[in-house]
Amino acid sequence: MTHAPRSESVAPQVWTGRASNRMQWVLAVVGAACLALGIELAVDQPATTDLVPLVMSVVGCLAAGLLILFGTVAFTHVKVQVDRECVEVRCGHIGLPRRRIPLADVSGARLAPLISPRTWGGWGYRWRPEKGTAVIVRRGPGIVIDLGGDRRFTVTVDDPEGAVQAIAAWLRLRSRPLASS
Q1: Are both 96 and 38 inside the same structural domain?
Q2: pLDDT tens-digit profile of 115-140?
Q3: Could you give the count of Cα atoms lying within 13 Å of 124 in the half-sphere of its Cβ?
């Protein structure tokens, strides 16, 4: 991880951080098992089986398996990057869902020492009217980004202090008047 320097005379560097949750892989295995069961039901049924219950079982298992598998794999980890333009949050191995927050929209950031999936309604991409939007991949520390107008974006990430310092440094740099030549 690269941390933003504390000195105001030097431009901050790009800060990156991540957080992961290995327990999500357990749920992914459950999703894969549902998929396997759906395939097994479709392939290995006697010809005397009623078609409608079979189709309903196969479709149900395949749908549940895909939803569980892709819903959990997308949130096995999160990567956060802070640079001169934005705060970017990318989830999972393919980076989706992704949230890009321009620094022009950020009014500040603060440390959240304990973010709990329970208070957000679980893991994943969440929205709560009283709390704003969040990406929660595990219980633990994270950052809360203030977007003005009582709007907030929360994300769990390792080294949240570094993220808060980087955002503050970039915001200070952006708010300075340009020196005349």
Answers
A1: no
A2: 999 999 998 899 999 999 999 999 99
A3: 13
pLDDT higher for 99 or 3? 99
Cis before 97 (ω within 30)? yes
- How do strand 132-136 and strand 152-156 relate by DSSP bridges? parallel
Domain match, 126 and 168 both: yes
| Terminal CA-CA length for the chain | 35
Q: Do both 50 and 135 map to the same domain?
A: no
pLDDT by residue (tens digit) across 51-107?
A: 888 888 889 999 999 988 888 888 889 999 999 999 999 998 888 899 999 999 999
171 in the same domain as 107: yes
Residue 29 lies in a domain: yes
